[in-house]
Design a protein that fits this description.
Radius of gyration: 20 Å
Number of strands: 0
Strand content: under 5%
Number of helices: 5
Mean pLDDT: 90
Low-confidence stretches: none
Largest sheet: none
Length: 99
């Protein structure tokens, strides 16, 4: 069940929501809910990425906490300029172990 919630928004932001509402033919509440979902999803991905880059969690843990597949988490990291610490040397060592 949805729970009602009151929030205060700056007029300039509310004007932008009104514009989206008209362009998308949606009511204001739906636009705000959609924006909140988008913002939440972006925030959990960013937080997971930051923890991964700091070495606090593994890639699979980051993907799980961001509610993404490992492939999608890798793509998110690349698209947002996060650099991998994984080197060619690391790859060669892992390949030797697999042989």
């Amino acid at each position: 069940m949805n729970n009602p919630m009151g929030i205060r928004l700056e007029k300039s932001f509310l004007d932008k929501i009104e514009k989206i509402s008209k362009n998308e033919d949606l009511d204001r509440s739906t636009v705000i809910r959609n924006l909140m979902k988008i913002g939440y999803n972006e925030m959990i991905k960013r937080k997971a990425a930051e923890k991964y880059v700091k070495g606090e969690i593994t890639l699979s843990e980051a993907a799980k906490s961001a509610d993404l597949s490992i492939f999608s988490m890798e793509r998110y990291l690349i698209e947002n300029g996060f650099k991998s610490q994984y080197s060619i040397k690391d790859l060669k060592e892992e390949l030797k172990i697999l042989e």
